[in-house]
Design a protein that fits this description.
38% of the residues lie in helices and 20% in strands. The protein is built from seven helices and ten strands. Bound molecules: adenosine-5'-diphosphate (ADP) and guanosine-5'-monophosphate.
Length: 208
């Protein structure tokens, strides 16, 4: 089991507040390369719900074009550790077992749920399990590719990781795909438009 940390959320319980003022927590997972980023961009633009992304913190280096505070809060390992020790994370994990940490900051979630927003977490399977301990009613969606071979093709075409890093991600992907059944919904991202439509339908069905 990789190193992990899952702090207690703030004492206020947004899910138990008055029904109208309560937001929703939506957790989206899927192997790297499944198309989560691509799908979510479309979801934010096209789904009629008060969606807000939770911007995760990470110690990994930004990819070209990634913006601090938008794609991630890019932290140094020291700053990440400091915040972790300070109990600022709802959950955090060393996702690829090679020293890169990822985590959801409490400040990205609780205040927005309280304000009635639908907060979207894009996190891995271990993170989802930790979040469900605190927010058991979270809506969980797993985005999957048609096959691991297709994942390999997409990651290779994306060109943002070395071959060794891709191999590592494919290994994690095989393990993650075996966990897909933990999620309330599974969306196969083979044809992008169809996957976006399905995602929006799921949100709509959970909206009332
Ligand atoms: P993730 O965020 O899950 O790691 P990305 O959204 O970065 O995945 O997608 C990985 C690559 O696959 C990108 O180059 C993206 O353009 C491509 N991609 C995403 N969805 C599809 C799809 N339905 N068909 C083909 N390529 C796709
Ligand atoms: P990437 O480096 O491709 O942006 O993300 C790699 C993986 O880290 C993805 O599977 C993504 O879901 C996961 N991830 C991103 N943010 C978080 C987070 O805050 N917590 C956890 N547990 N996983 C995360």
């Amino acid at each position: 089991m990789p190193d992990a940390d899952s702090a207690k959320p703030n004492d206020d319980k947004p899910q138990e507040a008055g029904a109208r003022a309560t937001g929703k927590l939506i957790v989206i997972s899927g192997p790297s390369g499944a198309g989560k980023t691509t799908l979510l961009k479309r979801m934010y633009a096209e789904c009629p719900a008060p969606l807000v992304p939770s911007v995760s913190a990470t110690t990994r280096k930004p990819r070209p074009g990634e913006v601090d505070g938008v794609d991630y809060h890019f932290l140094t390992p020291d700053e990440f550790r400091r915040r972790r020790e300070n109990g600022e994370f709802l959950e955090c994990f060393e996702v690829y077992g090679r020293g890169d940490w990822y985590g959801t900051l409490q400040s990205e979630v609780a205040p927005r749920l309280k304000a009635g927003k639908w907060v979207v977490l894009e996190i891995d399977v271990q993170g989802t399990i930790a979040v469900l301990e605190h927010y058991p009613d979270a809506l969980t969606i797993f985005v999957q590719p048609e096959s691991v071979e297709e994942l390999d093709r997409r990651l290779t075409a994306r060109g943002t990781e070395t071959r060794a890093a891709i191999e590592r991600r494919l290994e994690v992907a095989r393990r993650e795909l075996a966990e897909a059944e933990r999620y309330r919904y599974r969306v196969t991202n083979d044809e992008l438009d169809a996957a976006v439509t399905r995602l929006c339908e799921i949100l709509k069905s959970c909206g009332s």
